[in-house]
Amino acid sequence: MTRSIAIALAASTLLVTGCTDDYTIEFRYISSAPPEVLVDADQIRLPEGIAVGVEAIAVEDDRLVGSVIDFVPVRPGIIGIDRGTHERTYVFYGISVGATSVDYYFDAELIGTIPAEVVPQQPQP
Fold first, then answer.
1. Distance CA 117, CA 101 (A)
2. Exposed, middle or buried by CB within 10 Å (0-12, 13-18, 19+), for 54?
3. Given this model, what pLDDT does residue 33 score?
4. Where are the domains of the chain?
5. pLDDT tens across 62-75, in order?
């Protein structure tokens, strides 16, 4: 009887907390970018009017996985994200100055959110 209660408690805990998989994303720039551009798993910062190409690779428990990543800006009028022409490539671009976040999905499941901001362009000397 005690064992079945323990199993039921463990199962209900999994239902409440969800999966314990630790997903993250590794980004690699595939185009040149000004120094104020930052695209990583913790933060996205782009100047207004600037685009950067990146490769985004899903990582689960420190191993690469082939999951499809979909990036969805919460406020699409601030930041834009389009798929690139090659697998795992994307173009991130600043549309207008402001703060937002980007939700990311693996295999159509919401996995996380990255804070994002578009800043004014720095004047060129």
1. 8
2. buried
3. 87
4. 22-119
5. 777 766 799 999 99
Sign, Cα dihedral of 87, 88, 93, 98:
positive
Q: Is-contact 61 21, C-beta < 8 A? A: yes
69, 105 contact by CB (below 8 A): yes
State the Cα–Cα distance between residues 25 and 113, nearest whole angstrom.
11
- 99: tokens are 């703060």
3 state SS of 6: helix
The pLDDT assigned to 49 comes to: 95
Class of domain 22-119: mainly beta
User: Could you tell me the two tokens for 8?
Assistant: 């039921």
- The whole-angstrom separation of Cα 90 and Cα 121 is 21
CA neighbor of 119 nearest in space, from 94, 89, 100, 93: 94
pTM of the shown model: 0.78
DSSP letters spanning 33-47: --TT-EESSS-EEEE
Structure tokens at 2: 């005690």
Q: Which residues pair with 58 in a beta bridge?
A: 25
The CA distance from 89 to 39, in Å, is 13
